């Protein structure tokens, strides 16, 4: 069948005119949605996902790698302002290996191996020393970059030539610039570790000659000289002081919040720490022990003639005076010797720095939270409880102050109102979302119901139109004759069913009798059936 353009157009317009407004919207929106989905799928399939193969590149390294990728005809994208290179995920591994074979990305122009292994014609000792210094700087930079919180590092060494006289020898110095990773920081111990690394790696370099900066120009190496400034607290000492104050404040604040409620009290602490390291040597002497003991006793007895009158007779040997007598003398000597070992006890105590020398605690209580007649009693109780919780020692000079003043609640009320308003808006938005969802569901159900009703009406109209179509006279007569013939056949079949012969009636009665006998005597029927089967065999 041939159709002209006018008939096709008329058919389309007729079909469009029969559609309701929701049906027209769905008829247009559905193909558009399918087309958009197909276009998006094709776009996604034709644009693969990219992954980064190198990050944190310098401009020179990025330029070398992109030139190589252009020669390899590999698609790539630049990210992070040109410091990162991304390639299709499926090609990432192969591209990385190809670039590695080409020696990319390249590091510094000077390396340790080049400095030691290569010798140039006409090179002087100064040139070789310069290449050695550059190679050492590169190796130190590579070592510093291995630190977890260091993104990049630059090292500059100043190593003067050695002289014959010590007083003319210049000091070796080093300067380090660190670029830390985003969100990270460096501690004092790490700064000292970096300085010790440089001092151990460079000949003649001392800790005080190392300067360390961050990327913002802040001097980090000041902590190396803080030990020589006794009047200045180091960063570690400040952190310890703040930690002590904060722990005391939190302990007291949490206790008061449980008693009076959050926001009813304010606690502030101030701690003075003693960072002096005290060494105490104690020597104690005991009674000792006896090592040796000796006792000596000596007795002596002498006898001599006594004295006589003066004269020749008494002085000539051999002559004795008539009245001469003998004189006897005796002596006794006793000595004791005791040797003792001294009992000595030596004790050394080293007192670690960081003890609390003085602690001050201030507590401010909201006067509106308690009645006026209980303020004094409450202040006394708070002083006693806080003194016990914070470890206040009056003999040490610790101070605790508690006062009750009305708080300014304007900011708190505004904040509470803002929170209530935000909660109200959140509930309103939730209700609106629920309402919109319910409305869309109702609209969808309504459109679906109207579409089904419209289809049903269209089907009924089509059937009614077909029934009301004009029929030719000859066709009408044929239909009437066929209908009459069909009616006669049906009447004849009904009459034949109603009229039964005597034989059919007798058969029906026999069948009913057999059915009744089978229901009443199933065993007999079974035995009879078995007999019939046996006879047939």
TrEMBL record:
Keywords for the protein's UniProt record, in alphabetical order: Bacterial flagellum, Cell membrane, Cell projection, Cilium, Flagellum, Membrane, Transmembrane, Transmembrane helix
Listed InterPro entries: AMP-bd_C_sf (IPR045851), Flag_M-ring_C (IPR013556), FlgMring_FliF (IPR000067), FliF_N_dom (IPR006182), YscJ/FliF (IPR043427)
Ranges of Low complexity composition bias in the record: 293-307
Region: Disordered, residue numbers: 286-313
GO cellular component: bacterial-type flagellum basal body, MS ring; plasma membrane
Flagellar M-ring C-terminal domain boundaries: 256-407
Domain Flagellar M-ring N-terminal: 46-221
GO molecular function: cytoskeletal motor activity
UniProt subcellular location: Bacterial flagellum basal body; Cell membrane
Membrane-spanning residues: 25-45, 431-449
GO BP annotations, alphabetical order: bacterial-type flagellum-dependent cell motility
Membrane topology: Multi-pass membrane protein
Family note: Belongs to the FliF family.
Protein name: Flagellar M-ring protein
Species assigned in the record: bioreactor metagenome
Gene: fliF_1
């Amino acid at each position: 069948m041939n159709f002209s353009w006018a008939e096709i157009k008329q058919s389309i317009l007729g079909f469009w005119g029969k559609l309701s407004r929701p049906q027209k919207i769905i008829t247009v929106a559905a193909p558009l949605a399918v087309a958009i989905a197909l276009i998006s799928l094709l776009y996604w399939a034709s644009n693969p996902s990219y992954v980064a193969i190198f990050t944190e590149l310098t401009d020179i390294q990025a330029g070398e790698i992109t030139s190589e990728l252009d020669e390899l005809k590999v698609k790539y994208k630049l990210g992070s302002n040109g410091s990162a290179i991304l390639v299709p995920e499926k090609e990432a591994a192969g591209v990385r290996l190809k670039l590695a074979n080409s020696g990319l990305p390249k590091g510094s122009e000077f390396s340790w191996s080049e400095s030691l292994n290569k010798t140039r014609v006409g090179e002087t000792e100064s040139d070789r020393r310069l290449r050695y210094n550059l190679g050492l700087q590169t190796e130190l930079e590579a070592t510093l970059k291995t630190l977890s919180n260091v993104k990049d590092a630059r090292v500059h060494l100043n190593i003067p030539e050695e002289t014959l006289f010590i007083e003319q020898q210049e000091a070796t110095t080093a300067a380090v610039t660190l670029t830390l990773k985003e969100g990270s920081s460096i501690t004092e111990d790490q700064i000292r570790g970096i300085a010790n690394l440089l001092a151990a790696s460079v000949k003649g370099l001392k800790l005080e000659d190392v300067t360390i900066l961050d990327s913002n120009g802040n001097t980090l190496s000041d902590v190396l000289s803080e030990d020589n400034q006794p009047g200045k607290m180091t960063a570690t000492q400040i952190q310890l002081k703040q930690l002590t104050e904060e722990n005391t404040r939190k302990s007291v604040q949490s206790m008061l919040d449980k008693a009076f409620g959050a926001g009813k009290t304010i606690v502030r602490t101030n701690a003075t720490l003693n960072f002096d390291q005290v060494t105490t040597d104690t020597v104690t002497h005991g009674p000792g022990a006896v090592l040796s003991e000796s006792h000596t006793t000596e007795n002596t007895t002498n006898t001599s003639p006594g004295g006589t009158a003066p004269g020749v007779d008494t002085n000539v040997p051999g002559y004795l005076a008539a009245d001469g007598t003998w004189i006897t003398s005796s002596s006794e000597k006793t000595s004791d010797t005791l040797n003792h070992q001294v009992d000595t006890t030596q004790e050394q105590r080293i007192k670690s720095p960081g003890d609390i020398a003085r602690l001050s605690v201030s507590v401010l209580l909201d006067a509106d939270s308690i009645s006026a007649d209980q303020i004094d009693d409450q202040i006394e109780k708070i002083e006693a409880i806080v003194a016990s919780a914070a470890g206040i020692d009056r003999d040490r000079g610790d101070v605790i102050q508690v006062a009750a003043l009305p708080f300014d609640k304007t900011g708190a009320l505004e904040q509470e109102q803002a929170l209530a308003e935000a909660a109200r808006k959140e509930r309103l938005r939730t209700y609106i979302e629920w309402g919109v969802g319910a409305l869309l569901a109702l609209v969808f159900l309504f459109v679906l119901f109207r579409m089904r009703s419209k289809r049903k009406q269209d089907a009924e109209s089509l059937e009614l139109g077909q029934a009301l179509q004009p029929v030719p006279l000859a066709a009408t007569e044929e239909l009437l004759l066929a209908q009459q013939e069909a009616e006669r056949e049906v009447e004849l079949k009904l009459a034949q069913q109603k009229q039964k012969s005597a034989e059919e009636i007798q058969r029906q009665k026999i069948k009913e009798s057999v059915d009744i006998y089978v229901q009443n005597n199933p065993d007999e029927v079974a035995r009879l059936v078995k007999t019939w089967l046996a006879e047939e065999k």
